[in-house]
Amino acid sequence: MILPPHLSIRDGHLFIGEHDTVDLAGRFGTPLYVTDENRIRENYRRLADALSARYPKVQVLYAAKANGNLAILRILAGMGAGADVFSAGELDLALQAGMRPEVLLFNGSSKSPRDLALAVATDVRVSVDSLDELSQLNAAAASAGKTVEIAFRVNPAIEVPTHPKIATGLATSKFGIPAGQVLDAYREALACSNVRPVGIHCHIGSQILEVEPFARETAVLIDLARDLADIGVPLEFIDIGGGLGVPYRRGIDRAPTPEEYADAVMPVFTAGVKELGIEPALWVEPGRSLVGDSTILLTRVNSVKEAHRTFANVDAGFNLLARPAMYDSYHEVVAANRADSPAEREYTIAGPICETGDLLAKDRKLPALSAGDLIAVLDAGAYGFAMSSQYNGRPRCPEALVRDGDVALMRRAETIDDLITTMTTPAWQEE
Ligand code: LLP
Question: Rounded CA gap, 29 and 239, in Å?
């Protein structure tokens, strides 16, 4: 296994940045998410630089759904990122992190009247997903006496090599307006009194390890931009979404570099806008590629059981990292307190949840494990804590952030009290 540069093994212990994971687990307890701030900064800088070197007007909108901790959003806000937000909660977090409304895009295929009113009130751009939504948004803006800037989310009908549950640009997907209908949608928007179409938006899927689908997607958007120029839509941004994958199988998977991504997308984009004589900003919405590899999940072995397989039963399950159970996702695991011992046995890492599918990793060669050992699950920064739950009555674990020699919690552990704090007692149950 090839570790990413911010992870290392020193005297048999896994380190994240300058921090011994064994000490972190001792200090904060397990399970524990640990994120390396510098890694997020590097990931952001490399992508932003690769794109900006090829076109002057680039804006990164971090996909807040990947990891919505305010500390993470603050890091990215400080570097100039805006955000793709998918809910009132994500919008609030992005604003609290200091992101400017003009670089926030309120996405989503099912926005409520409250969501639309909030978008109007906060002056963010809205990615509109249907004609029904368009007329509701126009009415909301009119009643507030405002004009809202919008893009339409296009469904480009593009197949992508990823898990079907995270391919979003298929013709059959619930997202976006079919490319063949989108021109009429813009005509309708132009006729709306309180909506101003200024962008076009697309997102084809997630965990994509090839660049070619992004180039095809960009070509679809450029073709549409040509049609939009004909009908008089002044395009201020073209948003190609996120989707760049990370190499979860370290040493086996190969993820495109930011430069390779830029090299695939930018020639299509720059040639297209040059031909059209327009200079829209290029917006991108990366989530996983910025935060995925920045974070590990530390989990303690509670017991080892020899059965049909050898199970290492740990204290984190799909309540904290849903990806393996939900998408059969692969995450590398490291025996963090004996990381340089020979891998001599196969273990299946099983969580504490009362479901057969609660396995974090299957049949992995690891050093001989026993109760008390520490396991690190790698590449858990995207859609990890963000998709966690309190299932089985388990409070969520804390999240720590490290930067150089510093370490701090960026979320405290939930307690049993937190499980019941939102519950209320129906009157007829009161004594
Ligand atoms: N933009 C839009 C409109 C999106 O829906 C998403 C992700 C992104 C950007 C960011 O995509 P990324 O760069 O992170 O691939 N829970 C799944 C992934 C769901 C992705 C949802 N949309 C997983 O754990 O693999």
Answer: 41
